[in-house]
Design a protein that fits this description.
36 helices; two-stranded antiparallel sheet; 5-stranded antiparallel sheet; single chain
Length: about 725
Amino acid sequence: MTDPSQTAPPPPPAASPASPAPPSGRPAVATLSRDLSDFLIELSITLNKHAIYPRSHPLLDVAVDGVSNRLGVLFMEERESLSIGVARRQLIIEGVATDPQNPVLKELAQRLHQHRVGAVKFVRGIGRDELAAALAALAIDPIRSEKPIGLDTERAGELWPHVRFFPLTYDRLQLIEDDGTGEPAGPDQMKSGRATQLWIGLARAALVSDTSNSAAPRNEQEDNAALEPATVARAIDEHQREEAYDQVIVGYLLQIGDELKTAEGTEAAGLQRRVSRLVGSLKESTLEKLMEMGGDKAQRRKFLLDASQGVTVEAVVDLVKAASAAEGQTVSHSMLRMLSKLAHHPSANGPRPKADPNVRDVMRRLVDDWSLDDPHPESYRLALQNISSTRGLAESASTAGIATECEPERMVQIAIEVGAMGPQVQTAMVDICKSGRVEVLLDLVEKAPSPEEAAPVWDFLVGERILESLLEQTRIDIPLVRRFVQRLGPSAASILLDAALVFDDAKTRAQFYELLQSFGDEVGAIAARRIPDSPPVIQREFLALLGRLTTLPPNFSSADYLGNADALVRREAVRLLLRDPAARDAAIMSALADTDDRVVFAGLGAAQEKCPRPGIELIKGRVERGELDSQLRTMGIRIVAQQRTSETLAWLLGFVVTAARWPRRPKLRPSTPEMLAALSTISTTWPSDPAAATVLKLAKQSKDAAVRAKIARSRETTSETGLKNE
């Protein structure tokens, strides 16, 4: 096979395509690893070749092999998946943004953006054929396709389960432009320049998963609300933390930080205000997650220095706090507390433009070298942080209904430490739950000196059915649910399975199944009992969950579902049945006779290893009658060819050669995938058989490049096999 590295020009030796090497004396710019750079370039060039050459062209096989090999190298490490965020002119991979001026990667980003794809994720286990099909679909101009891939992700997920596309929706937002009235612009109004485009891109990416009400009519006020920093921050906070989603958000933040460094004018001021309010509205945990930026310290430092030139002092302090957490909390907390006070208190009496450069200069010097650990004990640090925080005032105002002046969480904490529970403590816990801060009680339980002291609070959470109430929310806090489930253990399995039966979001259900799988084989029997009365989509997912367990429940057989009306249920049933050696042949025969191509594909995949004799005849009949699509017929031909008999050779020759009317002599059939598969098998398995001599001679003399390529490749394979045998 041709070395795939020859299909793409090597990147410059000094830096990857992510960004050029910085001049000496300036902060280092984050760059991609060589393997990631090579993969992105290979992917872009392969998509470009798909747009140039017809699908049967042999160069496409070489190009796809190159991308597949690059992915194989990346998955040789501990990486389970590879996520790529998509901006308009650049890509974001592992927290690093590519250079928007690189023509190869810029073209790849634009192609994905035109398909309305916000992010793409490659999952370990992807096969070469699946990758080739996905790349062929991406290469199609979205204008000429029925629907861009980003708007058809459900069908794409069924076709290519190891390539996940995340949509980029446009219907929630519109461009902010001057209205032409000549009236002065408002304080947050932005003209339609680069700064506006960056903010709208960030808002689109943040709201990409908010499609629950996309079909409902929206007025202009709702569309404008979608651009508000508080709305964007809430969408980012409430997202179910998908790596590919975070890649896109980080990518836009990097571009905005670069724009804030040099932008001037009214539009830039609007962007500065919006970004400052966005940073202030994000949860600390969310901001820390985004500031990890793929673990790249140079990228993080550059973003901080760029953003600090154009956001408020409060926002700068929040960014540095989040970055210090990502670095292991090595910035002095005393210094940050002092800066927080300096930034917060004077701002109540108006802006302090002269003080901003001084504070930013301190921030820059902090970022230059934050390598010392905090010498203070953890309890002392937390006490100082609570004293300097301004949030206690707002929280105390919300607890006016409690018959005590002590904050409810402080009362519960004291009760745990002294081992005394009473009506006031019970009231405090109820009010904490009503205010939507259940995680506060769970934190107290987890940090208690001993399980016995935390038992009353935990019993309260269980008795109030807090886990069930969390699962009834429209947007489920999966990290919080995971913490409850881990403490409950296998007893939470029934609760999660019941929630899966009523929850409509497939992505959320998948996270339920991941939690269930962590319990091991204990959940198998519970899930199996719920399958018969579940709707088809849940039946399919429960069967898939059983397939991921080590052992199946006793007295359970998926054979009962081989006749199910839903094809995907039958496919999962076949996969489960194939695990039983005694039922393997019956499962293959059932799958091969199925009317749905996806079920047949599962049967053919198993038959490639060993196919029962009746299955060979069944495959031959279905291939001859044209009941399967081209890919399945090709697979069937290769499986039949495993029977190395003269009868099989004669059957294969029928796909390759036919008799001309005049003169009466054989000629090759047109080169279809079935014809090429049969020819390749004949050339490899029967190269010296007299019955195949005429066909092989015609193939060598053929004017069709694909036919000659198959013969040449088969000859190389035969030679390598002979050398190994020697």
